[in-house]
Each structure stands twice: as C-alpha cells, then as structure tokens.
Amino acid sequence: MALGTATATASYELRFDSGRICLDLLATTHPEERLDSAEPLRAWISGSGLVPAGTPLVSVDSSWLVGFRELRGHIGQLVRTEPSRDSRPFRIALARVNELARTAPPVAHAVWDPGGSLVRALDGPPDPAALLAAIARDTVELLTDPAARASIRQCEGDNCPIVYLDTSRGRRRRWCSSEVCGNRERVARHRRRAALARA
C-alpha cells in the first residue's frame, strides 16, 4: 500500500469529532462499514466514552453488531431529515429510539486507582441494551435541543455523508474535517485554477 493511501485510510478510521456520541456512531459507515466485527465495535465503545477508560469489553461479540447498526440507521433517519409527524420512516425511527432510551444506561461510580486518584468504573461488564440506551438518550437530547439541532450540518466534501455539530464561531464550518475533506476541496480548487491558467 502506498504511503498516501495508508494516510488517507488512517484518517478515516474511527472518528469521534462530530460533537455527539450519536453522530459519532453515524460516522462508522464512512468511507466503508467500520462496525464489521466485534473488535472495531469494542474500539468504538471505548473511544466514544460510553464506558470509563480501561473497562474490559470481553463480553462484546458479533451479536452486538445488529443492535448498534440498527440504532445507527434510525439516527441517520432522524438527523438527516426535517422532523415530520407525517413521515412514516421518521415516526418509526423516533419510536425505536425512544424505546431504546427507556433502558437504564451504564452506571459509573467513583473508585480509587492504584495511583490514589478517583476514577470512574462500572460495577460489571456493560450490556448492549444499556449502551444502546445511552446512545439513544444522546439522540433524544440532540433532537429536543433547538440550538443543537440547528447546528447539525452535512459535510460538504464530495461523497462524504458525515453529519456533525457546527460549533464554530459564525457557524461557517463546511467540512467534517478540515484535514481530510477540507484539504481535498483545497487541492481540487488548486488543480482547477492550475488547469485554467494552462488553458
């Protein structure tokens, strides 16, 4: 694999820069399916902050993938369209997210670490319903917060489906990542100008 290709692929690994856990889950489809086995799901759960750092996730197996992918699809339906009581797909997605949100999310408590600091820990291994509930509740909070909902943006990068919260000054952010999609746009613009200059 060429270095440029490896760098481009690495830049699209699991991302946690959308501004919300639910939108970070949505980003796991780009540029290809990221949640294709238990290992990336474990990495996503850890990286998203759903569980305290260092939480063993040995119970996460491939059977968990269905629930996370299903919830991801519902989140996409809810954040990529305007809320509408008349839209059957929107109503179905909202009902499922609300149903998942009813379960209690994982409960953390404070414990002493070996260095003498207080850290978060779970009483036992997380279960998928509790983790899905935490993501569903995050979705409910996003949908019901008018300021947050107004900040939802679709990346303007070519063929980039990433959705993020635009919290930039002036609300002018155009890309999910200035380093990835923004850089591609700048390179394309430079090439167009160079081609016009040669013509």
Describe the structure.
This protein is mainly alpha-helical and 199 residues long. The protein is 49% helix and 8% strand. The chain has 8 helices and 4 strands; from the N terminus they run αααααββααββα. Strand 3 (152-154) and strand 4 form a beta hairpin. The chain starts with a helix and ends with a helix. The relative contact order is 0.14. The model is unreliable at 1-12 (pLDDT under 50).
Structure summary:
By secondary structure, this protein is mainly α.
Mean pLDDT: 89
Strand proportion: 5-15%
Structural Rg: 19 Å
Question: Would you tell me the structural class of the helices and strands?
Answer: mainly alpha
- List segments where confidence is low: pLDDT < 50 over at least 5 consecutive residues: 1-12
What is the tally of helical segments?
Answer: 8
- Give the strand line-up of the largest sheet: 1-2
The backbone outline, from C-alpha atoms, is globular
Helix content: 40-55%
Strand count: 4
Element-by-element helix/strand order:
HHHHHEEHHEEH
Largest sheet: 2 strands, antiparallel
Taking the alpha carbons of the first and last residues, their distance comes to 34 Å
Q: Which tags fit this structure?
A:
single chain, 199 residues, mainly alpha, two-stranded antiparallel sheet, 4 strands, 49% helix, globular
Secondary-structure blueprint:
Elements: H1 3-11, H2 21-26, H3 38-48, H4 65-79, H5 88-101, E1 108-112, E2 118-122, H6 128-144, H7 146-150, E3 152-154, E4 163-165, H8 178-198
Antiparallel strand pairs: 1-2, 3-4
Helix pairs in contact: 4-5, 4-6, 5-6
